[in-house]
Amino acid sequence: EALRLELEYLDLAKLNPLSLAWRRGRVFQAARHFQEAADAYRAALRLSRATPTPALKEDKSCSDNRPRTQAQSTPFSPDPAAEWGERQAALLERLQEVHKAIGDRGESYETAIREIEANAALLEHRYLLQGVREDAVALGRQERFEKWLRGRSEHARSPEGRACVCWVLKDYPACAKAV
Cβ–Cβ contacts within 10 Å for residue 147, how many? Predict the structure, then answer.
């Protein structure tokens, strides 16, 4: 019943397609409908590549104490100043969570690798990279992943990105040098 109400709320809300897909994913994930959540997050990821300006941003303007639905508790609105990498990292981290819950780390790993190759800004997201590394270890692809990540380090657009790559590779002296 709660899931139905949440989805009805989203159907009536006037959200841009990206925010709607993101919020549907959050609602399905909270209801432990992980396959539907993964589908919604994948849709949001496709939309984030197609629309570089609308972004996901938490709206902290709700300060009342009234009970709210899951969809209302994490509202997102367009924010043209948000970085494409930030939005994609948030989506990929959510996808990692639901794929782990489903038990499909291979899909999580392959999706993250494709997105990182397409957007070097994602190298600046240590938690995302650590999640991909965990997937690689679980899949027995750790050496392949580390070799791939070393090769990507030269594509990092900032010292923070190089530091994140070095941190995930456990090359702490190079991490310190990067920052």
Answer: 10
pTM of the shown model:
0.67
Structure tokens at 95: 């996808």
Tell me: the pLDDT tens digits for 84-120? 667 788 888 888 889 888 888 888 899 889 888 888 8
How far from each other are the two terminal CA atoms of the chain, in whole angstroms? 50
* The token pair that represents 149 in the structure block: 């990540």
